[in-house]
Amino acid sequence: MLKRLNAMRKRVHITTPAGILVFWGVTNALAVVLLAGIFLADFTPDFQDKDPFVSGYLIIIIYGSAAVFVFLVSLIVWLIRHRDPYLRGLREPPGMAVGATVTFAIGALVFWLGLAFGGRWMSVLAAVPFVVAGALELFAFFQKARA
Amino acid sequence: MPFRGAFSVLFQQNTIIAEVVFGLVLAMTAVAVAMSWHRKRHGTEPSRKEKSFRMELSYIGGLLGVACFLIVSSFVQNARDFPDAPDPAMQVQVTAYQWCWQFSYPGTRVIAGGQCEGGKLPTLVLPTGRTIRFDVTSRDVVHGFWIPYLKFKIYAYPGHVNTFDATFYHPGRHIGRCAVYCGLLHYEMDFNVQLLPPAQFDRWLRARGGSPAALRRAV
Amino acid sequence: MTTRISRPLPQRQVPGDRAGLGEWLLSTDHKRIGLMTMTVSLVLLYFNGSLALTIRAQLAQPGQSILSPQMYNQFFTEHGSGMIFTVITPISVALGVYLIPLMVGAPRIAAPRITLLGFWFIAFGALCLIWGFLTPGGADAGWWSYLPLSNSIYSGGPGEDLWIAGVFLSTAGTLMQGWTVLWTILRLRAPGMTLMHIPVFAWTQIANCLLVIAAFPAQLAAMAILALARVDPQAFHSNFWVFGYQQLFWFYGHPVVYVMFFPFVGCAAECLQVFSGVRWFGYSATAIALLVFSTGSMAVWGHHLFASGQQVNDYFSLTSIGLLVPAGIEYFGFLATMVQGRHRYTTAMLFAITFFLQFLIGGLTGILVASPAIDYHLNNSYFILGHFHYTIFAGSFFGFMAGFYFWFPKATGFYLSEAIGKVHFVLMVIGTNVTFIPFFILGYIGMPRQIASYPAGAGFTTLNLISSIGAGFLGLAFLVFAYNVYISLRRKAPAAANAWGGFTLEWATSSPPPRFNFNLQYPIPKITSFAPLLDLWERQRDRAKAASLGDGRTLGEGGEGEAAALGEQLPPPDGPAAHPPGRGGEHPPGVGQEQSPRTPPRQE
To answer: What is C20-213's CATH number?
Structure first.
């Protein structure tokens, strides 16, 4: 029986990128199902006056969405890589593109500082660094395309 | 209801298991150090066994066993804390606010409240030997209603009432504290809990203009 | 220009290896980004640590007012928020940013600009959090910032807004770095580096980054809700929003504490195996356990709300207690590896062993409060503070120190002083235990957390005094640590490529590594297991034995040449396990024999 378990273990290929994500997703899904089950069964409340939505349905929604989100972004990443195998190469981004990155960060900071200090109008100032970042990014993209 | 009992049973169980586990790990570490010293003294190479499926499996089995035991224990004691209780003998309304407490006895007009500053804490007077239903809520932010003697706390939410039952058995005086950070004077938001024998409690209630019968009927 | 990973660029053609602040701040080199993130976090560690020292000074006696209650509340808010959002969590992912490409044989991290953006977000986030101190009122809603306390009615002023901004930015930054680290492990490994050959540390980073990417977006949503609640408090005043925020917050708030754990287990595991001279025991079991642990960590957050009266307590009790199973498997690996080894008690090893022991105290107390009937009493008391300071500080931080002493030579090319390191270690052990053991008792006897002072008759005085004395030791320990870093960078005791006789790929390249991690002078060796350099050394040793026995076996595969070319990267010829015990001196013996030609011979 031990030998059969061992043999089974060797055949299970969770140690590939897809395997890891699938394993993780499945185990999370099992946890969500268990949560839903216990919530529904347990709903003669420990305490009284429990609100079923925030105590149960909401957390199932949050939990489920998190797992779905991970899969969604993994899928996007996989699709990007799948489309362009040459992204695997050793390409360094041009300086202008790096500048775009930092400008974008500054834009995010200005946006939040605006919310904190100056009301919404000050956050609008953040549009400036965002536009600059976008412009730098485009320039860098065309520069690369030409090169 | 038997919060104290459930707490001590579980706390003892868990503490014993925890001490045993820690002791074992500490001992194994000491053994490892000793074995390493022994190898160095005799110039032997370290052992190179990298896995043992059988050992791991039995060890995992052991872990699962401990986990199951603890889980069942936890379920049992949690259920014990909240039995399908018979109707309580009386009710108390606990209202938390920044930064003190108000206790009222429905069916009567008796209210105990205060400002909590300078050590002038409000006192929640309760009878022993009767099941009391607590309705806990807040007027503003989230607070926490904690009686360490009872080994129980519950949060006080605005716009929501949390209910629990408790029975006290021995007269005495205890402290209560706010258990959820609620702003500037959170640290001063304590209260007293005075437990009186039933006859004395009824006398106290009557002296405040309340009627014990009305209190019982209001449940 | 695209180059395949297996033929990295020669050293001299590589741009971006230049010095200068601008070169660092705009770098796309994952090593620089990782070091910058960790440096910012280490500075913040000292800042937030001094807040804690002040808190301990205040609590040493009842009824003190070193700080006004308003300021005290800001202090503990920033201490908790700063440590979690801008110190330990970014460090845990930044360790991966630095080490993972090296460990998996990649020339760079996936998406370097996103990684850099992550650093900037973390730095700006920290700026916002600290800025709060300069505003009237500041941020004083605690590190959870529960509604309605944190809305604009109960916490007016820009301080809380800055807090929300700071948390949002730093969380987003760490999220980005978590993505790129995971992406690198999954997609940029060198040929031969299968997922069962990545180092143990890399598996901990997989578990870590899965948590980051799954749970951190919930915090971004929670912060958005807080921001909206500050615009229109009445719309977010109902129990749905108040309790709903708590559910969303803790959905992030629990995984984040495992993010503050997994990589440090990895650090300790790497140190442990190298300084025991044996491979980590039960590698596959550890890998699976980490994945299960990672999932499990997503499913336990409700235990923070056991006392809320609105939670499905049984489910979360089940999952929380259930986590002891994967945790126990890690400990099995720890003990089995230690038992088999010949130990070298370097500072890193001492921190690694102590990590496992002290974290255990935190973990066991965690299992304790995973039963609601116990948590109804101990929730939000000093017992919980004891629990998490043991797991994160006496635990994870010790793992970080192990990794710091271990990889400092790799990152800088110089050793940290072992003598000063051991003083640092002893002070930390005394400090953490004397400070945090009293917390368990204080919580049990009824001291709530987040209180600016306590009354004299409450019975809390002696224990608080003891704890504050312990905090003094911690302050001293951190001074010693800073001194060690300073003096070691001045003294410049050179470290070889394989400074400790390490097993994994980062030790096959120079210290510090070249711009694209590996080059013609330091190529990636053959990857045959999760300890490729140990395999290499064993192959060389076996061949040498065969040759000296004169049994006529040829040295196959150009073995001799292979060994000679990689002579600097191998563990010392007398074997990593056969080291005589340290002379009590500064560096592991045998290291002097593997000087790379570019570093001068070590002067004693």
So the answer is: 1.20.210.10
